[in-house]
Amino acid sequence: MPIGTLKGRELLLAPSILAADFARLGAQVEEATAAGADWLQADIMDGVFVPNISFGPLVVAALKPITTCLLDCHLMITNPEQYIDEFVEAGAQQITVHVEAVTHLHRVVQQIKAHGVRAGVALNPATPLQFLDEIVADINLVLLMTVNPGFGGQQFIDSSLDKIRRVRALLDTRGLDQIVLQVDGGISARNIRAVAEAGATCFVAGSSVFGHAAGVAAGVEEFRQALA
Ligand code: DX5
Question: Cβ(168)–Cβ(174) under 8 Å?
Answer without folding.
Answer: no
